Every structure is written in C-alpha cells, then in structure tokens.
C-alpha cells in the first residue's frame, strides 16, 4: 500500500486539474485594470451599432485603416471593413503566405433586447405607450419594472439619419414597462412563468401629460410634439427607424471582493472586447494573418446581410486576396480549408442555485478561465459544429504553452436544452472551429454576471491564438 504522499502525487500526475483561477500567481492589478477598460467600453456601447462605432475608434487608435483606402496590402498592415454600421471584420496581415490559412476569432455584437414595432405609439387610459417586439431569447418577466433606455436610429424618407440615445445620462429620463401589483395578480401568479407576461403586453410607458384636455389622443399628441421638437420626426418616421430598448443600468464591478462584473449584453460583448483588444494590442506582426469578426444577428439565427450567414465576410477575405495581388479561382476555398477559428461566444456558467441543470463534471465555472465548448447543439448534439479531436488538441496546446487557464465544458445536462453560436457557419466553409468564450451567470437577462479572471484569460487566450 502506497503512503498518502505517493497517492497525492499520483493523483496530481493523473487527474485533470479543475482549479479556481484566483491563486497567488494572478496579477490582480493587471486583471482589474483590464476589466476597468471593459466596463468603460460596455458603458459606451449597448447596441450593435454602438459596439461597431466604439470598435472603430479603438482600431483606428491602433493603426487600423478602412480596407477601401488601401490599394495594396503587405505583412504588418492593419485593415477593417464595416458592414452597414452593424458588423465589422478586421485583419492584421501576417508574415507567412495567406494560402496556408488564417487565424480567425469571431464574436457577436447583438444582444437580446426589445425592439420597437414599426407603428409603436398609442394612447390608452390617458397614458402613452410604445409597443415592442422582443429580439432574441428572453424571459419576458425580467424586462418589466426595470429602467430602460432607447438607443438607435430614425431614418427619414429623404435619407436623413437621426441618432437616438436617451436614458443613459443621469439627466435623461428613463422608461419602464409596468407589471401587475401582487394584490391583484392572483390569476397571473397561477400562470406558468413563460406565460406570466405576454409578448404583446411588453409596452413601454412614455408619457402622461395631455397636449390639450379637450381632444382625443391628447397624450399621444403631446409625445409626438416633443419628439418632433427633439428629433424633427413625425409618427410615420417610426416605420423607418431601428429603436432598441436596453436596460438603463450601468455595467459595474460586482461583489465585496470586486471579482465579478455585472452588466447588460455581456453575451457577447465580453468576447467582442477581448478578441478585439487582443488583436489591436499585438505588438509584432504575427506569422499567420489574424482575422477578427464582430458579427450581428446571432441572437436571431445569424440571417440577413449583417449576419454571419451572409457572404459579406467572404467578400472581405476576397478583397484581402485581391490587395495582396494573389487572388485566383478557388483560392479563398483553399484559405478557408487551411484556417482555424475560435468562435468566441459566452458559455453558461455553473450556478449552484440551479445546479440541477448542469453536469458538474462538464459545466463551465466562473473563475476557472476561458471555457472551450467542443460542441453545442441540443437533443443529441443536433445542429452542433462538433470540433475534431485533432483540433481540440491544437487549441489546448496553444493555451497550455502560453499559460492560459482553460476549462472544457458543455452547456448543460444532455436532455435539458442547448444552444448554438456562429461556429457551424464558418465550419461549413472548411475551417477548423471550436467555441471558446467566457462563462456567464444569468445569461440573456437584463443584468448578466461574469468573472474578471475569465475575461482576462480570454484576452490572453485570444492573443495566443492569433499569434499561433
Ligand atoms: Mn452569444
Ligand atoms: Mn446569446
């Protein structure tokens, strides 16, 4: 019988390590400083358009140029392409031939929210409301009785575009959706949680003063008068607007130990920020051309011309090949088949309060580092892009040789549910892809929670990947 010390050593040698990352080796200052940059970024950018705007500022400050301004490209050049203000692709041209493939990291800028309907404004009971249609997978009851702000654009038929951002500044008013008082909610409380609030009842309360007491719809008229004076718009201009309601709460440091971050839309802005800063912070020209994708519409299936299913990404890649002076038929297919990618999307963090939905051996834990998901999908991996073992080994090796703390996880128990990302779209082009992102608590809720440690490991991991 071996003694205890030997047994411990054998265990140490043979067991895979699942450790909390907050050990003595962590440079807490570095981790917290990086998180402050992220929190700052989050407070300037809650919607996909705002993310792209901020990302452009960050990229340009680090020497990136619009690819349209570059006639030719050479190693070390830094370029970007913005697609309709909602998605963006960036590249750092590497030293080796692009024919050997590129290293791609892709995240998405859109998050679950409430969009205004095309004809949103109405008056009822002497109160004015805006009707909404929710975007992405939400638990509807979470969106009532919280402060909401309105972000987006109104485009008039002459093309004039008006930007809207109201509810974020301390001096702005906020908006909210009301809910029934418990005293009169007997029937509502008997309903299933998912039916407690109807989608059609997610109506935003926006005003209560009548323009003139003696006319019908006087409160609605007063609101339109205010909007006309503020934005120069009339009611019909709502039809060509994109106005999004998002939580008016600030992204903040969280916990007595300040180890976590609470904020709206961390799915998937936490990966956008870490993949983007990893790219722009690279000091030297990488061996392999590095590509960063910030996509749109992931939360509703990646369709449309700003979603990952569109061909705009191929167009960007072809424009790179053109400007390198090497393009020829089928070259892009070859590049893709030689490429590797991290689909940078968040993972479900293990929540001890709801432990029964997770397999503890395969759950992502807050504070254990970046989470790799070999596959997603639901009900028997349906719809999953299941990464090849060889490729998982490649990614492990990149992380292990750069001291990046990682965990390999899946979304939840086998029969409980599932999800998807943009991984399969790129994998279908022949690229080796694996999901790899930050674990989140309360995913898709108005306030999501992440760990500063995991955020920093994502930054480190993404940079190591670009450099590989
Ligand atoms: Mn996501
Ligand atoms: Mn999501």
Features:
nine-stranded mixed beta sheet, single chain, 468 residues, Aminopeptidase, binds manganese (II) ion, 11 helices
Short description:
With 468 residues, the chain is an alpha/beta fold.
Give me the secondary-structure topology:
Blueprint: H1 4-14, H2 28-44, H3 48-61, E1 65-66, E2 78-83, E3 87-92, E4 102-108, E5 113-124, E6 127-135, E7 148-155, E8 161-166, H4 186-190, E9 203-207, H5 218-231, E10 241-247, E11 252-254, E12 260-263, H6 266-280, E13 289-295, H7 312-323, H8 331-337, E14 340-343, E15 347-348, E16 370-373, E17 377-378, H9 389-401, E18 406-409, E19 418-419, H10 423-427, E20 432-437, E21 439-440, E22 448-451, H11 452-467
Parallel strand pairs: 1-2, 4-13, 4-14, 14-20, 15-21, 16-18
Antiparallel strand pairs: 2-3, 3-13, 5-6, 5-10, 6-9, 7-8, 7-10, 11-12, 12-22, 16-20, 17-19
Helix pairs in contact: 2-11, 3-6, 6-11
The chain binds manganese (II) ion (MN) (2 copies).
One manganese (II) ion is lined by residues 267, 299, 444.
